[in-house]
Amino acid sequence: KNLTLKATKIAGMTEAKSKELQQVGEPGPEFSEPMTATISDDGKSILLLGTKNATESVTFTRDPVVSKPVTPSVRSNESSYVGKWAADLSTVDTSSLTKEQKADWPMTKGILESSTIELKADNTFVFVIMVEKEGDWKVDGPRIKLVPKKLMGIEGNDVKSDPIWLTPKDGLLMIESDNGKGPKLGYRRK
């Protein structure tokens, strides 16, 4: 079975938005010609051949799906946060950005537009901002603490990072970027 793949978003940015940025001299992802791929007869692997001028290929193999029952473990003070949350760019105070952050804002905005946080009832989370982080969460005082354990599905000491802190405020979950040096961003329930 042959496939033709064309990226519709790269790092959360559409091709049209990337072209807009490039026209004003800003960096944006390059959308290349479509890639071709072949799915194996058993459906367990995909051979990505790339573009017509590509000299290398990549094989993706499907891992067996292991489903585990979700056992709710949230405490009563945590249950109101369970669910999916999406970035709300109207919460960013762009007037407080540094000159460098303002110059990078078009690219940053494109990345943040597709950012989501899912807080699950078993006290695990999935945080997507360009890449997917997974781990455990809990309410810690007035804030919510996310402890990453996986990056793009990979576990280990190399992928663990500092906790991510969310502050509930006016129906939003506020996150501070760049360890407090970047803009504050709110996530609104989907």
How would you characterize the overall build of this protein?
With 190 residues, the protein is mostly beta strands. It contains two helices and 15 strands. It has helices at 15-23, 99-112, and strands spanning 2-5, 9-10, 13-14, 35-39, 45-50, 58-61, 83-88, 116-119, 124-129, 131-140, 143-151, 154-155, 164-169, 172-176, 184-189. Strands 7-8-9-10-11-13-14-15 form an eight-stranded antiparallel beta barrel. β9 and β10 form a beta hairpin. The radius of gyration is 20 Å and the shape is flat. The two termini are 36 Å apart.
Strand proportion = 35-45%
User: Element order, helices and strands?
Assistant: EEEHEEEEHEEEEEEEE
By helix and strand content, what is the structural category? mainly beta
Report the biggest beta sheet as strand number plus sense, adding barrel if it closes. Answer: 8 strands, antiparallel, barrel
Rg is 20 Å
Low-pLDDT stretches are none
Residue-averaged pLDDT, rounded? 81
Q: Which short descriptors sum up this protein?
A:
single chain, 2 helices, four-stranded antiparallel β-sheet, 41% strand, eight-stranded antiparallel barrel, mainly beta, 190 residues
Summarize the model shown.
The protein is mainly β and 190 residues long. Helices cover 12% and strands 41% of the residues.
